[in-house]
Design a protein that fits this description.
The complex is a heterodimer. Chain A contains no helices and eleven strands. Chain A is mainly beta. In chain B, strands 2, 4, 5, 9, 10 and 11 form a six-stranded mixed sheet that branches. The chains are: A mainly beta, B mainly beta.
Amino acid sequence: DAGVIQSPRHEVTEMGQEVTLRCKPISGHDYLFWYRQTMMRGLELLIYFNNNVPIDDSGMPEDRFSAKMPNASFSTLKIQPSEPRDSAVYFCASSLGAGVLEQYFGPGTRLTVT
Amino acid sequence: GQNIDQPTEMTATEGAIVQINCTYQTSGFNGLFWYQQHAGEAPTFLSYNVLDGLEEKGRFSSFLSRSKGYSYLLLKELQMKDSASYLCNNDMRFGAGTRLTVKP
């Protein structure tokens, strides 16, 4: 298995632009997680899905952030409009269980908003 | 809310043993996980405890006390490649991580 796939690996954009991050989970995993990591705040859970349904989005910072999972093999995290404080590494992870089984992380997308 | 606390940094010598502690507060409990993260890379799973006691996996062991909300990760026979951040995880939330530096 190729593991969790994320794209792009790096994204540099200007403030105000829309950013879309993509994730393909491991086949058969029914849980998908989006995390954001910064030096100041560490690794924060933004949202997670079970069987393509959002279960907990309490970590989504504000309305500028949205996430979708149209099918079992694809998810997107969108930021519109982007701001410099959104600069971070965004990780996608998948698992066979939430909180009871280990998560497998993608390589991350390093986002820089100027 | 949920607090997961662990030391920010630790330093140890190659070949030695180091213990990284984690305390947590949560209304529900499904298990306590430890992940390793090398600089510039994604976290990778190390160990999992759901019952009290010690789980051993080679050079790495993890201990859990649910009544105390306490866990530790024990690394034996430290190697230079063990220099990394170690993240405590409970209920899908992560602690800030402990950056371990192994010196010759």
